[in-house]
Amino acid sequence: MELGALLLVFLVVVSGRDGEDLGNITGLPVCGDCVRCHGAIERNISSKSYRGREASYVVVGAGTSGSILASRLAEAGHEVILLEAGGTTQSEFIREAPITENQTSVFDVPLEWLEICRNPAFEHYQWEVDGSPKVSIAKGIGGCSIHNAMLYMRGVSEDFEEWPEGWQFQDVLPYYTKSENNSNFPVSQFHGKDGPIQISSPHKKFHDSITPRFIEAFQELGYGVVEDFNGEPTNQKPSETGKSGRTGAGYLQFAIREGVRDSSAAAYFGKSHPASVIKPSINFHGHCGNKKKSKKSKNSVKRGDYGSLHIMAHAQATRIIFENKKGDIIARGVNLVRLDSDDKPKCRCTVFARKEVILSAGAINSPKLLLLSGVGPAKQLEKLGIPVVIDVKGVGENFMDGAYAIVQFEAPDLRFQRCEKFEKGAAEGGLLGQSPPTTQRCQKEWQLYLKGGQGLFGTPGFFAGGFMQSPGHSRPNIQLTLHPYDKVNQQPWAFKYGRRSSESIDACRDGPVKCNLTNAHNSERGRIVTVEVAHNLPASRGRVSLQNAHPLTPATLNGSYLSVRSDVEALLWALREVRTIFNTFALKKVIGKELLPGKHINAQALENYIKCATIDTTSDVCENQNAPVVGHLAGTCKMGDLEDSMAVVSPTLRVRGTKGQG
Asked: Taking the CB of residue 443, how many other CB atoms lie within 10 A of it?
């Protein structure tokens, strides 16, 4: 996870030449803590004067990879400034006892991951992105590791075969194991016990009645039962195009520690985490630290054997400061704005890097910041009035992400009830607005959770999944995730499937009562299982670009989802295969009728269902493509050799055309 996460959200070392000062927002005052702090310095770069704070490394983005990287650099003895546009999230960053009645954050509770994504009260923890379909990108300490489903799933060896030398599976595997504290499997070539991130499988303590049958159904069809999705390939099933050890179904692994979400940030610098690499007393709001040893300030960072780690929350990077030094293009620092609680800019600031600026802002905001800084396709930059620093035409190109579709069935004998706790929103860290669980069973589960993270609230609410290999693919490309509840109704896009927001099925879960579920169908019993069918190896490619040269304007995403025919065909095959799975002996006696898309939906109607998430048997064309997206955004800062004209970074992750400071 350590190295893999760095790849997924684009760790990029950048350097460059200074252009027009796009990062300074006109009219904003200079932040007082930038110019008055101990160690504040003044620099003259490319005939412009800057005053601000300095460290050996400046890391932009305190997400899944940035949290790890900044912590590891501090562990190695370096001074690090970590910039994050969002605010604090988990209670790990505020206090040392995360599970308490009044102080637990919504980001701590594993079951609440869907609530974070669907509740408008948490919108300020999401980046705004222009384009359709909408993608969900977390904004806050921990990045996407504070709002995702915590699923721990590494790539298989075949995934790395096309990567450059030094990035093969055998090269990255030691970094995965170094990050793990795996409670399910012994120390081996594939697993570790001494890393900061706790990996566990909640199904051992809590699961539903359908999940074991789902795994049996895979086995009945000849697929393997996968004991360890992150282990040595076993139970291989031949396919038309080859074989892979991940094909099959099994129980999933999650980044959960004693009932609390173990985000990268919590794992690597959380206050209470027993395995944290570094535990500084972190100031998340960027005030000056007190360096006098006689008076230890709560805002100072831990020193000693470590370097220092200073996290500036509510600090949005607006431009990388470049210098042309005797023909070498070098990154000297980062301009930023400090944001208030409403995400409005209140002042501007500069931070300098003695060694390197490291961009780890994700597949949308990494290319956005490069473009704002003059690194990207020259024609695009000139059109927006941005001075060109380096003409790198691949910046923002090659965007990739999968689409998915939903299959739902009645499950009359389902023994499962999804609960919610944080339904009324939250302030900083998600600590406010708690409401009591809605049913007696959920109230009991919540009390269990307060006793050390036990029960349903300490789980993500799903426990098993599987992988399949569609025709034409050499390795598993279809991922199935079994949700023992109505996941469609839990999502903000419930209307896509004809679901009316007022037709909640919460009241239907405690008994076999008739519920009006959708405009398209009724369920005799309000117990539903949902299968999420995702295509993880899409051929379709999109693009990230700028709307204008203003740093606070959201980037534009043209995802081009399902634009390549083979991506549609893969999902068509997968949906039919799911129907076969649920018609096995293991499942058909406990599963009722198919609710979505409905067994009568086939041919063009099924294709329309995939593309538009609607049930329409009257039209041959899907006019409004708006399929749900997987959310595994990648590709916009492509790694490659100099011969690859679309490569943005080299195999050492340095932006092409730049040089480091040494």
From this structure: 14
DSSP H stretches of helix in 374-514:
378-383, 440-449, 487-490
**Cα–Cα distance measured from residue 509 to residue 441, given in angstroms and rounded to the nearest whole number:** 11
47-85 burial, b at 16+ Cβ within 10 Å, e below that, comes to: eeebebbbbbbbbbbbbbbbbbbbbbbbbeebbbbbbbb
Instruction: Kindly state the helix (H) or strand (E) to which residue 375 belongs, with its residue range.
Output: strand 375-376
Max distance between CA atoms of the chain, in angstroms, equals 77
Residue type, 351: V
Please tell me the predicted confidence (pLDDT) of residue 657: 92
Note whether 154 and 230 are within 8 A (CB): yes
For 308, the token pair is 């220092």
**Residue 15: pLDDT band with limits 50, 70, 90:** very low
**Residues 83/57, Cβ–Cβ less than 8 Å:** no
Q: How far apart are CA 241 and CA 573, in angstroms?
A: 15
* Cα–Cα dist 660/662, whole Å: 6
- The whole-angstrom separation of Cα 166 and Cα 643 is 17
Strands of the sheet containing 594-596, edge to edge, are 224-225, 248-251, 464-468, 478-483, 528-535, 404-410, 594-596
Distances 131 to 124, 134, 603 between C-alpha atoms, Å: 18, 6, 29
Q: pTM of the predicted model, to two decimals?
A: 0.86
Confidence of residue 446 (pLDDT cuts 50, 70, 90): confident
Query: In the block, which residue shows the tokens 């080299």?
Result: 650
Write the pLDDT tens digit of every residue in 472-486.
998 999 999 999 988
- How far apart are the C-alpha atoms of 279 and 300, rounded to whole Å? 12
